[in-house]
Amino acid sequence: MSTAVAGTAPTRRWTRIIPIALLMYTIAFIDRNNVSFAFAGMEKTLAFGATISGLVGGIFFIGYLFLQIPGGHIAAKYSAKKFVFWALIIWGIIAFSTGFVQNLWELLTLRFLLGVTEGGVWPATLILLSKWFPLNERARANSYWMMCIPLASIIMGPVSGWILHVSDWRYLFFIEGAFPWVWAILWWFFIDDEPSKAKWVSPEERDYIESALAKDRELVGQNVINYRAAFSNKNVWLLVLYYFLVQIGFYGFSLWLPTLVKSISHQGNVGTGLLTALPWVAALIGLYINSKHSDRTGERRWHASIPVFLGGVLLFASILVGKNLAWVAMIFVILAEGFMFAYDGVFWAIPAALLPTETLGGGMGLINGVGNLGGFFGPFIVGYLIQTTKSFFAGVFFLMLCLVAAAVVILFVRVKQTYGAAEPSIGSAR
To answer: Please, what are the domains in the chain?
Structure first.
């Protein structure tokens, strides 16, 4: 057996698995959030206001709940590759069909179904990564994959703005809804469920991964080997609460970001699309720096707490500055996203430190599914506050409170850190 360690093991998995998974979920995030660019046209065509726009953005997350635990379980026990492949095909059909809607009920139905179809993809992909990257690499592997979200937003802003400039909101869904079908083909031929099934992996790299994962399983322990134990674990529910609060802040901000940027800058569709991409560039940088430092030091909780706290404070500062200093407000918006999203790769390394393989898929599904209900409440409540108060102030203040609360909650999660300087890993929960 190979004796390679993290610093000398072959690294082909980083250039094979991560890019394909990253672009897969980039497409998922575009098809989920491009509705934020369509709000203005939809409100005129289908005759609804900001509160309903928030409902349209948020109902996705009601559907998103249904396949979280089943998707994570199927990926862990059977095949993440097959689960994601069929999800790509089906969500492409639903996203494309959104361009045909004629009334609000059709739109809400398709947004709900899109959520159901995409629901298990996140935990399934995290399970896939957990079979290729040991714990001492997990925050970085997660974060490189999760760059799909800022990358999607960087792409989505200019592309969606251009589509709306030359056409209308219906063609936005027709064009961007076709992307999953193309990527499903690449996913099928490039992704393998685990090293033992991949012909392209060298024996040295395969031995390193399998031996490192075996050591991780020993460190995590077997104290929560069934779902009853996992779902009654206090630490798991603290992670659910943290993620719920963060998603209120994140989606309440990101789905209304184009509208916020337009109100600050007074740009047209193309200018707003370009400016909307800048906060996501900052998110890429923050995600990379925070996850790399977390893997190097072995610390997780503060790396998940401090960025979220700073993101909330900076977001609120952008509203306090307001239109009087538009360029300063825009800088605060950019920095807010840079900090707000930096937590993500680090956070998703924590469940693997609490749960063994047998319950990890379902556990991450529970955290992602219930936590993402914040993605329903955030846009809806912000939309209601905007329509009621005729300004962004109350909505952004609410988002800041949620993010600050999340920053406090994560500090109560008990994770025993056993990282060494050369070969980091996390022990089981106390």
So the answer is: 12-412 (1.20.1250.20)
